[in-house]
Write a structure and sequence with these properties.
Layout lengths: L35 E4 L4 E8 L19 E9 L1 E9 L1 H5 L3 H29 L36 H12 L13 E6 L4 H9 L13 H4 L7 E3 L9 E5 L5 E15 L6 E13 L5 E4 L4
Parallel strand pairs: 1-8, 5-6
Antiparallel strand pairs: 2-3, 4-9, 5-7, 7-10, 8-9
């Protein structure tokens, strides 16, 4: 349905002071600090896991050398989605002077809607971290990621809220990480990803010189050791107020592919005389290697 004069009758009356509701400030993009950005020229993208070799065995004198074989394992697929939104203004609204005012405000509103949708799509990868399966057949956060060396975990065995203890437990778990054949890999946490409810808890845990919540004069080991060099990052579209994540430096973790950038279009309709505005883009969010993110659902 086109926006018409009846919907904006006050704008035609004398004495109008101001219009409000569309000019709120927006936060800077949040997903860009968390998701590795890529471009795509295809309908979808796929990442394939290749496994290497296990630990080399001892060769006894005179015995034959042992052979091992590498292999291709599971595939992670990124299926691009088309996101689009439009509005139109009647010919009569344009004639009565509403066109310029409405168009200027609502084209900005279109851009804001598209930006918000993109942030929601990104955050939903983490919102669904315990429910949506990845390429290996289990969710992003799981205690049973299948590997050729048995199941591996990237979540706390017992769910916990954000605290010094839970942070340290996950960081220890990250330092003990192994590849698909059971060989240890050199990986560390890079940043803490939190919902807004943990803002002040994260500030105290990561920025205090000394340990929080204790009268002892101990150092803040997480801060002093540089275990989270990028600090903490707030994603305001995370829906679970006590879930948190630690991103690692393992490549090919959380990823997004931009198939088509944001495009704007304006055209007139011959039959009605209405003016139509449209925005469109195409992209996908997801994850490949679960080792790129560790976390917990929170105790509640």
């Amino acid at each position: 349905m086109s926006m018409n004069r009846a919907q904006f009758a006050k704008m035609l009356e004398p004495g109008l002071n101001t219009l409000f509701g569309l000019e709120y400030d927006s936060y800077p993009s949040e997903y860009e600090r968390v998701f590795e950005s890529n471009t795509s020229q295809k309908a979808f993208e796929e990442d394939v896991l290749l496994t290497g070799f296990g630990a080399a065995p001892t060769k006894n004198e005179g015995a034959s050398i042992a052979y091992d074989s590498a292999s291709q394992q599971w595939t992670a697929r990124y299926q691009h989605e088309t996101i689009a939104l439009a509005f139109s203004i009647t010919e009569e609204a344009e004639e009565d002077g509403l066109y310029g005012s409405i168009a200027a405000r609502y084209t900005k509103a279109l851009a804001r809607s598209m930006s918000t949708t993109k942030e929601i799509k990104a955050a939903n990868v983490l919102n669904n971290a315990t429910s949506t399966n990845g390429g290996d057949g289990v969710p992003l956060l799981s205690a049973s990621h299948p590997t050729q060396n048995g199941n591996q975990s990237n979540k706390l065995a017992t769910a916990a809220d954000l605290s010094e203890t839970s942070l340290e437990s996950i960081l220890i778990q990250i330092s003990d990480m192994k590849d698909d054949r059971g060989l240890r890999i050199a990986a560390q946490g890079t940043q803490l990803i939190i919902p807004t409810a943990y803002t002040f808890t994260a500030e105290r845990l990561l920025e205090s010189q000394l340990r929080t919540g204790t009268a002892d004069n101990d150092i803040n080991a997480i801060r002093n050791g540089g275990y989270l060099p990028q600090g903490y990052h707030i994603m305001r579209r995370l829906t679970d107020s006590d879930q948190f994540f630690i991103q690692t430096d393992v490549p090919d973790g959380l990823k997004m592919f931009q198939r088509s950038p944001l495009k704007k279009g304006v055209e007139g309709d011959f039959e009605t005389g209405n003016v139509r505005y449209k925005v469109r883009e195409r992209y996908s969010f997801g994850f490949t290697d679960w080792r790129g993110i560790f976390g917990t659902e929170g105790a509640a």
